[in-house]
Amino acid sequence: MSESLLSNPKAYLKAEVIKSEKKRLDVFIGFLLMTTLMALVLQFAHAELLKDTFKNPFSYPLIMVFSIVMVLMFVIGRKWVLRVQRTKEKLTRKYYWYSILMEIFFPSFWLVLASSIEETAALLDSPVVFIYFILIIVSSLHLEFWVSAVMGLLIAIFFAGFTYWVTHAYPTPFGLPTLTYYLKSFMFLMSGIVAGAVANELKLRLLKTYAQIKSKEEIEGLFNQQVSKEMAEVLKVKKDYSARLEVTILFLDIRDFTQKVQHLTPEEVNKFQNDFFAPVIEIINDSKGIVNQIMGDGLMATFGAPVSDKTHYNCAWMAVNRIQQFMEMSRIHNPIFKDLEVGMGLHCGEVLIGNIGTESRRQLSVSGTPVIIASRIEQLNKEMGSSVLISKVLYDLLKDRVSEYKSKGKIKMKGLDEEIEVIEIF
To answer: 368: alpha, beta or left, given left = phi > 0 and alpha = psi -120 to 50?
Structure first.
C-alpha cells in the first residue's frame, strides 16, 4: 500500500470504493453476457417451449436486447470509474444516480413492455424479478447506505405500482393472493435498508482495517529503527528466533563524549548524537550489518546476521573504512565534530543471536565470548591512543586488504583466561 494512502483515510477509502465498484461492474457485465448466451441457447434449443410461454414472438428476444443494452451501459459506467481512478477523483453522486436509475430502469422497462405485449400479469413471477434482489445485494459494494436504501425504495415503489397496474389491466389467476406481491415490494424496501446497513458496516470495517494497517506500519517503522530490516523480517516469520552464527562484532565509542557535551543543552546533545549516529548507522546497514545496541556515546554492531554471510569480515572492514571517511569529512564540514575522535574494536567468532526475556518483554541479544572480546578490544583504544584495533583472528581474515598495521602483542583481558593478540590498524 502506498504511503499517500496510509497518510489519508479518505484517500484509502476512496481507492477501496473504486476497486470495489470495478469488481461489481465486472461481475454484472459477466453475468449479463452469460444471461444473453443462455437466452440464445434457449431460443434455438427450446423454441417450442418458448412459443408456448410467450404469445408474441418478440417478447423473448427483448430479454437479449435489454441484456446487451445493459452490458453497454455497464461498460460506460466502468469507463467512468476508470477515468475517476486515473484522475484520482472521487465517485460523485451523479455517478451513483446513474448506476441506480440505469440498473432499475432496464429490467423494469422490460417487465412493463413485455406485460403489455403479452397482455398478462404472469410476469410478476418472472425470473427477471429476482434481478432486483441481486441489484440490491450488490449495491452494498458502493459502501454508501443511501445508495442501497434508495435503490430498495425505488424498486419497492415501482414493483408496487407495477403490481397494481398489471393485475388490474390483465387479471390473471394466481396461486397466491395479490397481497403477496405487495409484500414482495415491502421486502425490496427492507432489503435495500439491510444492504445499506451492510454497506455502512463494510465502510466502518475498512476504516478500522486502515487504522490497523497504519498502526502496524508505524510499529514496524519504529521496530526497524531498533533492528535491521533483515532482522525484522526474520522475527516476523519466527518470533522466538535464535541461531548460532559466525559473525564479526564491532564496538564503536566516541572519545571524551561527556566532556564534549557537558555545556550543551539536552536538545543540543540529542542533535549531536543524531548528526553522528544517523550516518554511521546508515553506513553499517549499507555494509550488511545490524546495529544491536546504541549507547549514549557508542554502539555495537554485528555483521553476518541474521542471515549467515561468509564474507561478514569483509563487510565489517568496509564499514570501518567508510566510518573513517565520514569522520574525516565531518571534521572539515561540521564545526562541532572538529576535534571528534572515535575508537573502534572488532573481533569475530561464533555467537548466539536470539530473543532474551519474558513473554511480556523481550530483547534481541547477541551473546558469546566474541562479544566480550570485541568490547574489551575497543576499550584498549584509550590506553593505546589508537582509533581501530582488531583481534589477530580477524586480522588473519583481512590481511590481504590491510596495508598498514602494527601488532600490540598478546594482552590479558579482564574476565578472560586466554590472552588475545591485538592488531592496530592505520
So the answer is: left
Q: How far apart are CA 122 and CA 143, in angstroms?
A: 35
Q: Locate cell 592496530: which residue?
A: 424
Per DSSP, the residues of 271-325 read HHHHHHHHHHHHHHHHTTEEEEEE-SSEEEEEES-SS--TTHHHHHHHHHHHHHH
Q: Which residues contact 50 (CB under 8 A, 6 or more apart)?
A: 42, 43, 60
Nearest-angstrom CA–CA distance, 390 and 321: 13
Distance CA 40, CA 28 (A): 18
Residues 148 and 199: beta-carbon distance below 8 Å: yes
> Cα dihedral angle (131, 133, 134, 135), rounded to 10 degrees?
90
206, with CB counted inside 10 A (0-12, 13-18, 19+), is middle
How is residue 121 written as a grid cell?
400479469
Contacts of 138 (CB under 8 A, 6+ apart): 24, 27, 28
pLDDT (mean) for 88-92: 86
The SS3 assignment for 177 reads coil
The answer to whether residues 125 and 114 touch, using CB atoms and an 8 Å cutoff, is no
pLDDT of residue 2: 46
Q: pLDDT digit string (tens) for 28-51?
A: 898 888 888 887 887 777 667 666
Find out whether 355 and 399 touch, Cβ atoms under 8 Å.
no
* Burial grade of 325 (CB within 10 A; 0-12, 13-18, 19 or more): exposed
Question: What is the enclosing helix (H) or strand (E) of 421?
Answer: strand 420-425
Q: Environment class of residue 377 by beta-carbon count within 10 Å: exposed (0-12), middle (13-18) or buried (19+)?
A: buried
pLDDT in tens, 256-282: 888 888 888 888 888 889 999 999 999
